Automatic annotation (TrEMBL):
Annotated keywords: Periplasm, Signal, Transport
Signal peptide: 1-24
Protein's recorded name: Putrescine-binding periplasmic protein
One annotated GO biological process: polyamine transport
Family indicated by similarity: Belongs to the bacterial solute-binding protein PotD/PotF family.
Compartments in which it is found: Periplasm
Function text: Required for the activity of the bacterial periplasmic transport system of putrescine.
GO molecular function: polyamine binding
One of the Pfam families matching this protein, by short name: SBP_bac_8
Organism listed in the record: Roseospira goensis
CC annotations in GO: periplasmic space
Gene3D superfamilies referenced in this protein's UniProt entry, alphabetically: Periplasmic binding protein-like II (3.40.190.10)
Amino acid sequence: MPDLRTALVAGLAAVAATASPAAAEELHFYNWSDYIAEDTIPSFEAKTGIDVTYDVFDSNEVLEAKLLAGNTGYDLVVPTGIFMERQVRAGIFQPLDKAKIPNIEHLNPQLMDYLAQLDPGNEHAVIYMWGTTGMGYNVDMVKERLGEDAPLDSYDIFFKPEYLSKLADCGVHVLDAPTELLPIGLHYLGLDPNTGDRADFDALTELLMPIRPYITKFHSSEYINALANGDICFAIGWSGDVLQAADRAAEADNGVTVTYVIPEEGTLMWFDTLVIPADAPNPDAAHAMINHLLEPEVTAAISNYVAYANANDAAKAHMDPEILNDPRIYPTDEVLARLFPDQASSQAVDRLRTRLWNRFKTGI
C-alpha cells in the first residue's frame, strides 16, 4: 500500500504528542461482528477487573483505515493474516511479550508455522480463529430453482451465469472482499490466485462481468441474517458466518434450511489474528485479554458459539463434538489439500485487484 509507513509514522507522532496514559483497568477491543461468545467479555471482566469497550467492524479495509490514521484508542484488534502481514512490515503493531501469554503454549505448532510466514518468528500475532470462504445457500430455494441435479458442491453455481441467473429472484449476496473473491475466481480458472499477470486478470474479468447482473448486494455481514431469515437464497461467505445463519434459522424454526459448502474445486483458507497496535493505550490489558482468549475453555466456547475453527489444541477437549467433527469447520485432509492460503500481494497486484473490483461492483 503506498505511503503506508509514512502514514503510520505521522499517526504515531500525533499520538505521542497528544495522548495521555489511560487507566490500566480499561481495554478497548475491536473485533469482527458476530465473532465472540456471549460470556467471553463478562468472564474476562470478572476475572481481571478490567472494563472492556467492545466495538465491531465488518471488513479488513475498515480496520486498516483506522490503524493508518493512528490514535485509534484500541488496545487489541483482529486483522486477517494477509492484512496483518503488511501492517507488521509497516510497524503498525508492537511485539508481543509472550511471558504475559502463557496460554500461547496451547496453539497448534503447524498452524503457527504457517502464520510465521506472514509474521516472522510469530513476534506480533497469534491465531484467533481460522476458516474458509465458500458458498452458503437456502437448500429449498436453490433446489427449487436449479433442480436436484445441479452441481451444488461446485463454484459453477456462482461463476456460471446459467446457474446464478436462476437465483437472482431470491437474492444473491457476495462478500465485499476483493482480497478473497478475486483469488478464488483465479483459482477456479486454474490460475495462480496471487498472479500479477494482466492476461490472467483479463480472463478473470471475462469470468466475473457476465454474473454481475445477478448479484443483489456486496456486504460482509448482512448475509448472515439474510440467509437465516430466508431473505436471500445464496451467498459467498465465511464458513462460520454461514453456519451461524443455519443455527439461527433452526432456532427460529422458520422453515428455512441453510447449509455451507466448501466447493469441490477448493477455496481460500484464512487466519484471523490477535495483535496489539503500536499506540495501544493499555498493552498490559491487551496481553491479559489475549491470554484469556487462549484459555482452552474460553477458546472452545467461542468456537462452539461462532462455528469457526480455532488453533488451540487443548480446546478440543471442551468443544461441542458437532463443531469439532463437522468437516465444513474442520476440513478433512483430502479437502485441506484442495485449499489455498491467503497471501499478501504486491502494490502492483493490489492496483489490478482494485480496478477490477470497482468495475465488478459497479457493473460498468
